[in-house]
Amino acid sequence: MIPVPIGSGMRDNSSHQERLAITSDSDPDHSGPRKSVKDPEFVELAHPDSDVLPILSEKINSNSRSVHGVFSKGEAFADRYSSGDRYGSNKGVGEIELNAPLKLESNGVLLDIWNAFLYLRDSFPLKILKVEWFTFATGFCDRNPPELIEIKPFKKHEVVLGSVRSWPYLYPRNSALRGALVIKVTAKNKPIYVVEIQRRWVNDGSDDGEHKEESMSGLCFTIDSQGDFERFLNDVFSKIRHKRGVFKSLIDDCSGEADYFTHKHSVLDKVNYESAARNALRKMGLRL
């Protein structure tokens, strides 16, 4: 079944909106016109012959010809359009070109990072043996979706700046607390840990008022024992509140290796934040 772009005006019944019938039953004529539709989203239609599309551009096939003379060069007629290969003539079927940009679907930074590590595990099974998340209540686990560790709020008697006091909350004047995702990547030589803090959605400063997740670095580290691991995590989650999510000043407190990493995208990424996940592992000595 032909996929049909959905966009503003597709189901608009107003008389000024030119509409286009789409078919999957026939291929375009050699001499038929060519129309291009630009829309990034698609749905499958149960009855493609009865639905329509807005027309964004039109090109006439410069090599138009017809065996029976119904079409002549520079002349074309179509009452239906198909995305198939051009074949035959005189069917009254034009060619539709569906232009959809390739975009990675994002589920938010935390889930994207988790999925990036799963992707690297599947891509490099000899170097990455296991990927798990951790909470103090559950321990290490590899089931989906991952669970978060709640960042504790400040107690009423603690004296801190207002911006610091509100930071543990996902949104100001809201009781929902931020969560932290802790990932354990079991490599051949040693486990590597990654910590990501849940982001707020903030205005991106554009004229159209779009929103994005706030910018924040991640933490990667190695550590010798499970006891040190949990003590270090508790220390990180306490101190990170005062730093409002900036890990850079906390890396010296780790008994093993520790560093922070950023979340830059790369055109070579196969999944969102693949390069960020690679960067975290590279900083801990694991090159893929």
UniProtKB/TrEMBL annotation:
Ranges for region Disordered: 1-41
Bias (Basic and acidic residues) ranges: 27-41
Name of the protein in its database record: Uncharacterized protein
